[in-house]
Design goal:
Elements (H helix, E strand, L loop, with lengths): L27 H12 L5 H17 L8 H12 L9 H11 L8 H8 L23 E6 L5 E8 L5 E8 L5 E9 L5 H4 L3 E3 L3 H15 L9 H13 L14 H14 L6 H18 L9 H15 L4 H21 L4 H22 L7 H12 L6 H21 L1
Helix pairs in contact: 1-4, 2-3, 2-4, 2-8, 3-4, 9-10, 10-12, 11-13, 12-13
């Protein structure tokens, strides 16, 4: 310590550093109001629908599990910001947001918005506002594009109101229906990059609207949810435009007489040297998978569905005698050829699926030899069969299950 500083209070003689004030992070709702101030001068009826849908998509994508009211809660927050007790500086932006949301009204919050808009100051009613009690805009034309197997689909809806534009839904159906993108583009914008490898299907416009509504309904039931901006931002707009078009769908199993007819026809058609009963058993297994998992029905096999069947479903769900299991890829190759020819596909498209079966045959056999590849139920059943346990002996079955559970627990603890 220097003589000059001895005895001087700490910090004496130094210029204190200035600390910047902590910047308050904007809440999602504040960011919405800020954006509303920015876009308000350039809104049109269509642009208002697009930004309103984007604003609703934010809380919907951020919702928690089981939360069905995220959008309605957001709307109520907007309404609260227009009340007389709210800060006056927020009101103009809040009214802009509320009018934009009103262009794509949902039954869950339409009445709340209507009540609030009745109190809106006349000078804050924008020229682009649309009446709440109107019907959704209907397309003037629609088309659907698909790959040969129906796994990849693109639905295009053409509109002239409130101004010419197109709405596009991009969906995959392998492994369950899932909408990847919802797109809004100008009426003259080319969609060649989206549909260049697809074929146009002859489908009535009402069926396309119903199909888009159903695909979105099923996508919304996934968890974790589909929260990608490419989906969430236009979700509310697409739901509004397909309102009333959703058709109730209840799965019904293939009738027994149809199942037996397909098995009999396939057994007669195929030329493997496998025991006829084994062929029928495998055909029945293929129908089980197709009936429960193929979006297009029991005949709608595709390369992706072959992957899912051979490398996942068959490993976890199917128990077969070793010689039957060994023959499964060969019989599946015959089955997909039979099924897709029956469905009317071109021979090149049939061959692509059969080729995929051959490509995955070795991997299928490798997984069959891997005890960890099957699910717990299949592993337990395999052990019971190998040990010759009498399935009617409840005590013996329970002991075997207990031994399996203890072994798995010890394995997890060691890991």
């Amino acid at each position: 310590m220097s003589p000059k500083s001895r005895g001087r209070p700490k910090g004496r003689g130094r210029t204190p550093a200035k600390r910047a004030a902590k910047v308050r992070e904007l809440s999602p709702f504040d960011r919405t109001l800020a954006e509303a101030r920015r876009v308000a001068p350039n809104l049109t009826p269509l642009r208002a629908q697009l930004v309103g849908s984007e604003w609703l998509g934010g809380p919907w994508a951020a919702r928690g599990m089981g939360d069905r009211d995220a959008e309605a809660d957001f709307v109520r927050d907007v309404v609260a910001a227009t009340s007389a007790t709210a800060p006056a500086s927020r009101a103009p932006a809040a009214w802009t947001v509320l009018h934009a949301l009103a262009t794509i009204p949902d039954a869950a919050w339409r009445d709340v918005v209507a009540e609030a808009l009745a109190t809106c100051p006349p000078d804050l009613h924008p020229w682009w506002a649309l009446p709440l009690d109107r019907e959704p805009e209907q397309p003037t034309a629609a088309e659907r594009w698909s790959d040969p197997w129906g796994d990849q689909r693109v639905a295009v809806l053409h509109y002239v109101e409130p101004e010419p534009h197109q709405l596009v839904a991009v969906e995959s159906r392998a492994g369950g229906r899932f909408v990847h993108e919802l797109i809004a583009v100008a009426a003259d914008e080319s969609l060649d990059l989206l549909i260049e490898d697809l074929e146009r299907e002859d489908v009535p416009m009402a069926d396309i609207l119903a199909d888009v509504a159903l695909a979105m309904e099923q996508t919304d039931h996934y968890w974790p949810p589909q929260t990608a901006p490419e989906y969430a931002e236009h979700r509310a707009l697409f739901r509004w435009r397909t309102l009333g078009h959703l058709r109730e769908f209840e799965w019904e199993p293939i009738p027994d007489h149809d199942r037996q007819r397909l098995i009999a026809e396939f057994s007669k058609w195929q030329d493997t040297e496998l025991d006829p009963q084994a062929v029928e058993m495998l055909a029945d297994t293929f129908i089980d998978f197709g009936d429960g998992y193929l979006a297009g029905g029991v005949l709608a096999w595709s390369p992706d569905e072959v992957d899912r069947f051979l490398l996942d479903w068959a490993q976890r769900k199917v128990m077969l005698e070793p010689e039957v299991s060994a023959a499964l890829p060969q019989v599946l190759e015959a089955w997909v050829t039979f099924a897709l020819r029956r469905a009317g596909l071109d021979e090149d498209d049939v061959d692509a699926v059969a080729d995929r079966v051959r490509e995955l045959a070795d991997e299928y056999h490798r997984l069959q030899e891997d005890d960890d590849a099957g699910g717990p139920a299949k592993q337990i059943l395999s052990r019971l069969l190998e040990a010759g346990v009498d399935m009617s002996d409840r005590a013996a079955v329970d002991r075997a299950i207990g031994e399996y559970n203890a072994e798995m627990l010890a394995k997890r603890m060691l890991e």
